[in-house]
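I have a small job for you when you get a moment. Can you supply me with one protein entry, sequence and fold together? It will help me judge whether the discrete encoding reads sensibly. Write everything out right here, beneath this request:
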Amino acid sequence: MPPVSEFRGAWQEAQIPNEVIDRAEAFQARWGGLVLPSAPGMTEDAAGPRMLRVDTPEWEDTFAPQGWFFEAGPQRTAVPYAFLIGPDGTFGIAGGDDGQWVALHRSIDGWVEALALAYAAMDVADTVTRLTGPAVDQLDLTAMQPIAEVGGITNGWWYRPGLLAAVYSGEPEPSGLSTHRTAYLYAGNIDEQWL
């Protein structure tokens, strides 16, 4: 995987601002080449990038917010959307019929943290309950505290002693299939020290 510095001249000629190139270079230096597992229980197409690798930044005026986005890495399967890093550093997906941008986490760090937490939760949970569609909307998270490390926006994690809840709401949005929202409840010997 060539470093971003090899593309800097060509990207500057393509009128990509230096601060955007710097952001892409920092992403590549920190995360480039990291191979990720899919999120446990998620379908292969909603499971995130196969590995983290920057691609040529592109100006997007169809998304809100508008700005310079770059691909976080190649998808696991052919899907009608891409996992992108937004102009403000958020990690999310874009695509679908209307080219919608959906921020999943405040940063790529949050996505990686969420994957690590999912695999760790599977190891300590006595039971794992999967909820989908309308059942996700009925999930009462008021007695739980959000786990800040995942930086959740449309996807997130919540905790209370004995229970972790992972809610995946963002991936179905570009397709308009809100019935595909999913939550996982990990119950067992889970306390704050474990987090």
Residues 108-124 form the longest helix (17 residues). The two ends are 34 Å apart (CA to CA). The helical segments are 8-13, 18-31, 108-124, 134-137.
